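Risk register update: the risk of archive-format incompatibility is retired. Evidence:
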Amino acid sequence: EETEIVIPAEYEGLPVVAIRDEYGNGVFSGKAITSVTVPDSVTEIARNAFYNCAALAEINIGAGSALATIGGRAFSGCSSLEEVYIPASVISIGDSAFNNCGSISFTVAENNAAYRSPNGHLVERGTNTLLRGGRSGDIPNGVEVIAQAAFRYAQVTQISVPASVREIGNYAFDYNENLEYISVDEGNDCYSSADGVLYNAERTELIFAPEGLQGEIALPVTLSAIPSFAFDGRTGLTGVYIANENLESIGSFAFRGCGLEIRFAGTREAWDAIPKNQVWNTGAQLTYVCEAQA
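Archived output:
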């Protein structure tokens, strides 16, 4: 099976204008290809065209390309891909086009009217949406939306969320085992952070705890509940301080696989009274310190 694919500019005397199968999508999906060269004549890379091509490390697209459309999930799962050039002609990039790509960096042509690439991130100009995160964890000010799964498998160690961000999609930072810290600019009205953990602005809701969290952390006294899977598999954690004596609940698998000390501001009776899912501490090795006297 050929691993280095060169798409011809012509076939049987006609220009090649699209990369897709007869049904309009994943012509190379799941193939063991390592590189692909796209001729300037191609205007469309269809949905799922290179989906889950895990060995694909190089896409060659020229500055004179006529490429206009990159379909949804076109390069999703291409975990070996490190650099992508988006020419000026591109006006549409579909949902999840580069999700699950690992450590990647984008370069968008400066005269592209639809997209830009600050800090190597792929950002849609019209909506200020960060579609796919690059190798840098520094999100530039001006980005308003971080798309669903934008940094999944990105292999970053820290994330800095600017004041401009008002929406973070589901699973935005999942599957980054080395991500130790998320910080949020103090001027952000929608989100906040404490000890590297991401919260809503009021710190009543825990949104995401990085998978690489280290040492001890303190949960804000304003936190109303510990959600399901909050610290699932966070093996670098050694201690969690729970300041809210009236915590409403602890969700399923909240501390699964953890080995740490839980310090609780209230009494042992108050701790025992907190509603806990029956599998909240599955596989965990926990010790408890209740600081208040009965």
